[in-house]
């Protein structure tokens, strides 16, 4: 099925690794233009260098927590492509700590990254998205938003607030022709888990460590997901084919969610 993405322009944050990188590559493979940011511009260029002709990419260093950097990045992208049709608010990480181990500054940082990181991404893009036919925003969130985990206390709370805010965006931006949806992740094999494996000091191979992790968390599909398995639903939600889907949350967690 043609997703009607060719010739359109999309902005992806956190595109040098994991879900953001797989999503940027999937959009480029569909013939779209992609504006991608991360804090480390060298890694971003390295990872996307071979993905598409230069004129279909706008790569820049920008921190989603910085509103001015995000406005400059968005304006640069929109000028380069002459349009913006969608946004993937993906950049982030999680804080593995129980509530009693989490300082107030860390709690504030989590809310800053999760809430303002998304607001700083979406706000400057809106004026461009309103000019598009079939504009779509996808916010990458976590199943933790609805199923909190004590070992990720601050991240779970910030994710819940983000899910709520994203639902409000769908209500407010729908009349302006912009759809807004969430993708809620379970455990996905990306840089985040690779870093945790390296910090763990385990003697297990990475594959065995991931298999144990999946068993410990009771994932019905018995494994972690891949970044590509997230990119496909994200790209589907960005497509004008999904023209009546807004305010939805799509779980991509191999069945880890226990709610119905
Ligand atoms: P990775 O660590 O693989 O990639 C994170 C990307 O975000 C990198 O490109 C990184 O580049 C960029 N980034 C991090 N912080 C910022 C920032 N402040 N401003 C701009 N870019 C930033 O992560 P994942 O692909 O695993 O995660 C993607 C999203 O999915 C995140 O929001 C994460 O919290 C969420 N998620 C992931 C889960 C998983 O199991 N993997 C589970 C649930 C949610 P750089 O460091 O150069 O900035």
TrEMBL record:
The keyword Nucleotide-binding does not apply. Belongs to the short-chain dehydrogenases/reductases (SDR) family. Keywords: Oxidoreductase. NCBIfam families: PRK07062.1 (NF005468). This is SDR family oxidoreductase. It holds the Pfam family adh_short_C2. InterPro entries: NAD(P)-bd_dom_sf (IPR036291), SDR_DHRS6-like (IPR051122), SDR_fam (IPR002347). It comes from Nocardiopsis coralli. It comes from the Bacteria.
């Amino acid at each position: 099925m043609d997703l009607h993405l060719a010739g359109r322009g999309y902005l992806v944050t956190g595109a040098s690794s994991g879900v953001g990188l797989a999503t940027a590559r999937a959009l480029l493979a569909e013939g779209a233009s992609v504006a991608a940011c991360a804090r480390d511009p060298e890694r971003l260029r390295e990872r996307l260098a071979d993905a598409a002709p230069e004129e279909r990419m706008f790569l820049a260093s920008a921190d989603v927590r910085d509103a001015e950097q995000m406005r400059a990045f968005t304006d640069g992208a929109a000028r380069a492509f002459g349009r913006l049709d969608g946004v993937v608010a993906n950049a982030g990480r999680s804080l593995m700590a129980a509530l009693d181990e989490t300082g107030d500054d860390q709690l504030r940082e989590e809310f800053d990254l999760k809430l303002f990181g998304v607001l700083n991404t979406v706000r400057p893009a809106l004026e461009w998205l309103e000019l598009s036919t079939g504009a779509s925003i996808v916010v990458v969130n976590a199943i933790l938003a609805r199923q909190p985990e004590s070992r990720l206390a601050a991240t779970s709370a910030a994710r819940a607030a983000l899910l709520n805010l994203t639902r409000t965006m769908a209500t407010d931006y729908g009349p302006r022709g912009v759809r807004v949806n969430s993708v809620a992740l379970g455990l996905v094999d990306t840089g985040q888990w690779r870093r945790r494996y390296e910090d763990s000091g385990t003697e297990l191979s990475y594959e065995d460590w991931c298999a144990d992790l999946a068993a410990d968390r009771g994932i019905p599909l018995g494994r972690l997901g891949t970044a590509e398995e997230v990119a496909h639903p994200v790209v589907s939600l960005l497509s004008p084919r999904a023209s009546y889907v807004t305010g939805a949350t799509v779980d991509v967690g191999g069945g880890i969610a226990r709610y119905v």
